[in-house]
């Protein structure tokens, strides 16, 4: 099994659910959209915890 860290899961989630799902509108900036999405993720404690509890995540205390 590949052991990854939570930020890789966050990036993957953002790619799957963000701009790939809803293309940018004319005049919209990618950076602003990504920043807004990351803030939205940060405001969802259940989602954030799910990244840390994912079976593929290895914590230093597990070693």
Report on the architecture of this protein.
It contains three helices and no strands. The chain has 63 residues and is mainly α. The protein has one domain. The longest helix has 13 residues. The model has no long low-confidence stretch (mean pLDDT 86). It comes from Nitrosospira multiformis.
- Overall 3D geometry? elongated
> Quick check: average pLDDT?
86
**Structural class by secondary-structure content:** mainly alpha
Q: Summarize the helix and strand pattern as letters.
A: HHH
Structurally, the number of domains stands at: 1
According to DSSP, the number of beta strands is 0
Main sheet record: none
Proportion in helices: 40-55%
Oligomer: single chain
Radius of gyration: 14 Å
What is the overall number of helices? 3
Distance between the termini: 15 Å
Low-confidence stretches: none
SS strand fraction? under 5%
Question: How is the topology of this model organized?
Answer:
Blueprint: H1 6-17, H2 30-42, H3 45-53
Entry summary:
This is Transposase. The chain contains 3 helices and no strands. It has helices spanning 6-17, 30-42, 45-53.
């Amino acid at each position: 099994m590949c052991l990854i860290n939570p930020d890789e899961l966050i990036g993957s989630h953002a790619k799957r659910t963000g701009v790939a799902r809803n293309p940018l509108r004319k005049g919209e900036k990618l950076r602003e959209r990504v920043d807004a999405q990351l803030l939205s993720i940060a405001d969802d404690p259940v989602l954030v915890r799910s990244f840390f509890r994912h079976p593929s995540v290895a914590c230093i205390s597990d070693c």
